[in-house]
Automatic annotation (TrEMBL):
SUPFAM superfamilies on file: Phosphoenolpyruvate/pyruvate domain (SSF51621)
Free-text comment on the cofactor: Can also use Mn(2+) ion.
Alphabetical GO biological process terms: carboxylic acid metabolic process
Lineage: superkingdom: Bacteria
Organism: Microbacterium aerolatum
GO molecular function: isocitrate lyase activity; metal ion binding
Residue intervals passing through the bilayer: none
Catalytic activity: D-threo-isocitrate = glyoxylate + succinate
Coiled-coil stretches noted in the UniProt entry, renumbered to this chain: none
Residues forming the catalytic site: 222 (proton acceptor)
A Pfam family annotated for this UniProt entry: ICL
Residues where substrate binds: 101-103, 223-224, 260, 380-384, 451
Protein name: Isocitrase
Length: 531
């Protein structure tokens, strides 16, 4: 007996209790529809995926080679195709997530049109995208199971019991396309109450992991741009707490909070921290400020001063009313931010860096792990980095340290195509290839993500098609560059009607109307050319 058959039997018993008015109900059709709709609410998804993330975190603690990965997506279809591809090529979705990028929501999903990553887009667009992603992932399940059900019917008609048993086992052990989403809530879109309300909507849509950063909400900047302004720790802790309350209220007690610090690139603060005694959290935050010692006689109108160790210190205030941190304090502030966040409700860290450098990341994480040994990092393998140039320069520096001759290379010009075939370029590419593995082994990186890769791939593939189609190649550009590749590489979208749900709809019509069903998949359907 299988779980699939058990469900059929249960519906059959229900049908018998309801008598002749249920004669049109086929118990196996009900079992199929239930299997195709495993997750009925976003909260079910949030709990299911939170359990996955917690299991993965535990496994990583025992073996750092078991890190997790994701790609940022901006539309449900893109997320769906990513997971279909993963299942096709890698046979399992294990350790593979989705990342919901605030950058791409701003750039691609706002009713205002393309916006910079400054929290100007509608906050409701974030939970809306989470819901959309899971709608498409659930549809991928329904489609794939529908194909299995068709195979099962064909095997039964053919009288092939071995095939029937095998297909039923595939149905019973079916692996869903639904995976965890790490969702970007930016700096919380307002005060802690606003953060809590938005977090609830995100969790209700299915998010099991919410990433929040320590920037000022109304001055928020992309992590790889200038002008970032951080908040004192107590302000950030209030928002971490608000997110935890949202998880607890909705019953997802093991929801995951990712605390991001932008302090490495943030040289400004909007507020001075409240401090009650030397060495407390507020005093530590203020100790990084760029100050000048003054006497009471030097106080000017409206000056703000800090008293420390019996001295009057005047923080350097800009015309924008922001205060400046001392240069060179970024890494120390990141370490303090990270330890403080983990001590106050965060589960994972995110340190935004200016370059992909394992030693730099490890240097900060080693300091954090002296205090919290199992601290783990979510790391942004950002497209804002020039990966080729960064790693060629790292390879160059390695050659210098090893005493090798680098006279054939100009370190400042290593991006040049002239270096593409060189030994240095190969070493650099090998370092890029192993970056995630090395970062997870040496720097505590539990999760590697690329924030906005599908933004770039959409632009690149569209450029390829437009260049040929509107040029001399004409229709061959599409046929050779898209459709022929879809057919030969087994890309399911070549049968786009099927991907959009046409065959599922035909089967439902047959469930509902029997032989009277008017179906779209008959002999005149041109998708039959791809059988």
């Amino acid at each position: 007996m299988t779980a699939y058959q058990d469900d059929i039997d249960a519906v059959q018993a229900l049908k018998e209790r309801n008598g002749s008015s249920w004669d049109a109900i086929n118990p196996e059709h009900v079992a199929r529809m239930r299997a195709q709709n495993r997750f009925r609410t976003g909260l079910e998804i949030a709990q299911y995926t939170a359990d996955i993330m917690r299991r993965d975190m535990t496994e990583y603690d025992a073996d750092s080679s078991l890190y997790t990965q994701s790609l940022g997506v901006w539309h449900g279809f893109i997320g769906q195709q990513k997971l279909i591809s993963i299942k096709k090529h890698l046979k399992t979705t294990n350790k593979r997530y989705l990342y919901l990028s605030g950058w791409m929501v701003a750039a691609l999903r706002s009713e205002f049109g393309p916006l910079p990553d400054q929290s100007m887009h509608e906050k409701t667009s974030v939970p809306a995208l989470i819901e959309e992603l899971y709608t498409f992932l659930r549809q991928a399940d329904a489609r794939e199971l529908d194909l299995l059900f068709t195979e099962l019917d064909d095997a039964r008609v053919a009288g092939d019991e071995t095939a029937v048993e095998f297909i039923q086992s595939q149905i019973d052990n079916y692996e869903t396309h639904v995976v965890p989403i790490i969702a970007d809530i930016d700096a919380g879109f307002g005060n802690p109450e606003a953060t809590y309300l938005l977090a609830k909507k995100m969790i209700e849509a299915g998010a099991c992991a919410i990433q929040i950063e320590n920037q000022v909400s109304d001055e928020k900047q992309c992590g790889h741009q200038d002008g970032k302004v951080t908040v004192p720790h107590e302000d950030f802790i209030a928002k971490l707490t608000a997110v935890r309350y949202a998880f607890l209220e909705l019953g997802v007690d093991n929801g995951v909070i990712v605390a991001r610090t932008d302090s490495l690139g943030a040289g400004l603060t909007q507020k001075l921290a409240v401090t009650h005694e030397p060495g407390d959290l507020g005093d530590q935050y203020n100790s990084f400020l760029d100050v000048e010692e003054i006497s009471e006689d030097e106080l000017g109108n409206g000056d703000v001063v800090i008293k420390r160790d019996g001295k009057l210190l005047r923080p350097k205030r800009l015309a924008s009313n922001l205060y400046r941190f001392r240069a060179g304090t970024g890494e120390a502030r990141c370490v303090l931010d990270s330890i403080t966040s983990l001590r106050n409700g965060a589960d994972l860290l995110w340190i935004e860096t200016e370059k992909p450098h394992v030693a730099q990341i490890a240097g900060m994480m080693n300091e954090v792990r002296k205090v919290i040994p199992n601290a783990k990092l979510v790391y942004n393998n950002s497209p804002s980095f020039n990966w080729t140039l960064n790693f060629r320069q790292q390879a160059y520096d390695r050659f210098v340290a090893e005493g090798r001759d680098v006279s054939a290379y100009d370190r400042a010009e290593l991006m040049s195509v002239d270096y593409d075939g060189t030994e240095l370029a190969q070493v650099a590419d090998d370092m890029i290839r192993s970056f995630q593995r090395d970062g997870s082994a040496q720097a505590g990186i539990f999760h590697h993500l690329i924030t906005l890769p599908t933004y770039h791939t959409a632009a690149l593939s569209t450029d390829d098609l437009a260049k040929g189609y509107f040029g001399d190649e004409g229709m061959l550009a599409y046929v050779q560059g898209v459709q022929r590749r879809e057919i030969r590489e087994g890309i399911a979208t070549v049968k786009h009607q099927n991907m959009a749900g046409s065959d599922i709809g035909d089967n439902h019509k047959e469930y509902f109307a029997g032989d009277a069903a008017l179906k779209a998949g008959g002999k005149d359907n041109t998708m039959n050319q791809f059988s």
